[in-house]
Amino acid sequence: MFYLVKIWDNSDCFLKKEILYQSDNDVTAMQKASAATPDGCRATYESIDKEKYEKEKTQKTEEEEKTIIEEDIAS
């Protein structure tokens, strides 16, 4: 199974990073999420479909690039 870990800064609650990884079960997934979380941060993890996640991430990146280009044209 694939899991997505989201690491949050505990002081101002902003998303620091996302990590996609593979694990055999929920217990080892939780252990890996815990090991990847730096001091002063918190993490959430969820099982996901890898292909769906990568597709959504690509679409989000394309939308952000389009927005940046439109802002540059407008300025």
Question: What strand order characterises the main sheet?
Answer: 2-1-3
What's the structural domain tally?
1
How much is the average pLDDT?
87
Shape: flat
The first-to-last residue Cα distance is 45 Å
What can be said about the biggest beta sheet? 3 strands, antiparallel
The secondary-structure element order is EEHEH
Low-confidence runs of at least 5 consecutive residues? none
What does this structure look like?
There is one protein chain. This protein is an alpha+beta fold and 75 residues long. It has one domain (2-74). It has helices at residues 26-36, 50-74, and strands at 2-9, 15-22, 41-48. A three-stranded antiparallel sheet has the order 2-1-3. The termini are far apart. 7% of the residues are buried.
Features:
48% helix; 3-stranded antiparallel β-sheet; alpha+beta; 75 residues; single chain; 2 helices
Q: Layout of SSEs?
A:
Elements lengths: L1 E8 L5 E8 L3 H11 L4 E8 L1 H25 L1
Antiparallel strand pairs: 1-2, 1-3
Explain briefly what this protein structure is.
The chain is of the alpha+beta class. Helix content is 48%, strand content 32%.
